[in-house]
Design a protein that fits this description.
By secondary structure, this protein is an alpha/beta fold. It is built from three helices and eight strands. It has an eight-stranded mixed sheet with strand order 1-6-7-8-3-2-5-4. A hairpin with a 4-residue loop joins strand 7 and strand 8.
């Protein structure tokens, strides 16, 4: 499984969480008990401020050249092999697609009012 970032998505993530940092791509239905979710989204990007934070559950790696990306096995089952993340500056949110369809049009970055 690999995640490709658009130039816009890459720039926003580098600005908000830092170049080369780690984050979790978490689905709303499995992380509700762990992360308060962003309103209206099925997935959420959760920056890993502490490297060992949540890594007991979120151990599945998603390949990406610029960031270390984790998910959990339950969430991984909902994702395709060829993931693409884009950013919409008007909506201040990310869009996640796989090789078949759009998975989420409104992904927010946890702890940021506007992603």
């Amino acid at each position: 499984m690999e995640l490709t970032l658009s130039n816009q998505a890459n720039a926003v993530l580098q600005q908000k969480i830092g170049a080369g940092e780690a984050f979790i791509l978490a689905a709303r239905n499995t992380y509700t008990q762990v992360f308060p979710c962003a309103k209206g989204s099925f997935f959420q990007i959760v920056p890993l401020i502490v490297r060992n934070q949540f890594t007991d559950r979120y151990q599945a790696r998603i390949k990406n050249a610029d960031f270390t990306v984790y998910t959990c096995p339950e969430d991984q089952a909902q994702l395709g092999e060829d993931l693409q993340l884009d950013y919409d500056h008007k909506l201040h949110s990310f869009t996640l697609k796989d090789e078949h369809h759009v998975l989420d049009h409104n992904i927010k970055l946890k702890n940021y009012f506007f992603s």
